[in-house]
Amino acid sequence: MTIVVTGATGPFGRHAVEALLGRGVPADQIVATGRNLDKAADLGVRVQQADYGDPEQLRAAFTGADKVLFVSGSEPGVRVPQHRNVIEAAKAAGVGLLAYTSIVNADTSDLILAGEHQQTEQLIKDSGVPYVFLRNSWYLENYDFRSAVEHGLFGAAGDGRISGAARADFAEAAAGALLADNGTNRAYELGGPGFTMAELAAQISQVSGREVTYTDLGPEKYAEFLVGVGLPEQGAAVLADADRGAAKGELEAGPADLEKLMGRPATPVSDVIRAALA
Ligand SMILES: NC(=O)c1ccc[n+]([C@@H]2O[C@H](COP(=O)([O-])OP(=O)(O)OC[C@H]3O[C@@H](n4cnc5c(N)ncnc54)[C@H](OP(=O)(O)O)[C@@H]3O)[C@@H](O)[C@H]2O)c1
User: Fold this and answer.
1) Which of 20, 34, 153, 259 is most buried, judged by most C-beta within 10 A?
2) End-to-end Cα spacing for the chain
3) C-alpha span between 77 and 234 (Å, rounded)
4) How many angstroms separate the CA atoms of 127 and 7, rounded?
5) Minimal CA–CA distance to 204: which of 148, 132, 260?
6) Confidence (pLDDT) at 178
């Protein structure tokens, strides 16, 4: 069996390769792909260049692959044509399973971030390649816990519950989905047990020993705040929009799918905070 992991030069793909190795997949049956291959050189598996903008490279990388973990691209706005290349290459190579990292609640989500994932899911369905959608909620690593300790926690998610989980947990679940025999053409809604922003602030307080409070700014002011701390306007708008959606539960999913695929409970939020503050 050969498993190709795209985006293996980034932290998610790296964790997924490590999880596959940890579950006993031989190193010579894993191919790690990306653009900047230096970042995957120490993984101990085969590495191969595969730029989502280069159909030839993708086809070469997928030839002989039984399964592909397709890690979504990181350049919003151009992801649909890039992802189309990946899907067409997977189809041409006769890949038996394409596991795509999507966004939680993709069926119904109205987040700006969801649009490209929804279009990608549709392209995958239309391609006829057997698929699994790994609909990930928020990475806990999205939060700047150090800054929260210094300045407080800000957002626009109101009292909405966010099923954040450690990025490594989502990646481990992806590895689990690649190896499980749960059938294809299905979606997993992946997240941790969840928290409100006020509860997250309380957890940061507990771990850090400093009092951290959550201030809800509402989407517009939160976008301005994010620009003020250095984010580009478009990125700030997307993040503020994600919080707008989170306030009405767009980032919420129970932990059942994540924990089933990992075969263990989600990493406690406090552990992720502790690691970030160490
Ligand atoms: N759910 C969430 O909260 C959340 C948060 C952030 C990101 N994400 C999504 O999850 C993905 C993985 O997360 P991450 O933290 O590992 O992201 P990351 O650090 O941005 O890494 C992205 C990975 O995708 C690869 N990639 C991006 N564009 C590519 C292209 N055009 N062709 C080939 N490879 C390409 C990168 O390869 P090179 O480095 O070699 O160029 C890298 O390996 C992201 O790409 C994004 O879609 C989700």
Assistant:
1) 20
2) 39
3) 11
4) 21
5) 148
6) 97
Locate all alpha helices (DSSP H) within 23-78, ordered by sequence: 55-62
Q: Whose CA is nearest to atom 17 of ligand 1?
A: 10
Is residue 75 in contact with ligand 1, taking CB distance under 6 Å? yes
| Cα 212 to ligand 1 centroid, rounded to whole Å | 30
User: In sequence order, what are the residues at sequence separation of 6 or more whose Cβ sits closer than 8 angstroms to the Cβ of residue 236?
Assistant: 223, 224, 226, 227
Concatenate the DSSP letters of all residues of 257-275 into one string. HHHHHHTSPPPPHHHHHHH
pLDDT, tens digit, for every residue of 121-148? 999 999 999 999 999 999 999 999 999 9
At 55, list the tokens: 């159909």
145 Cβ inside 6 Å of ligand 1: no
For the question of whether the overall pTM of this predicted structure is more than 0.90, the answer is yes
Ligand 1 probe mutation, 38, 62, 71, 119, most atoms within 8 A of CB: 71
Q: Is the CB of 70 under 6 A from ligand 1?
A: no
> Which residue positions in the chain have pLDDT lower than 50?
none
Rounded Cα–Cα distance for residues 248 and 160 (Å) = 6
Torsion of CA 160, 164, 170, 173, to 10 degrees: -70
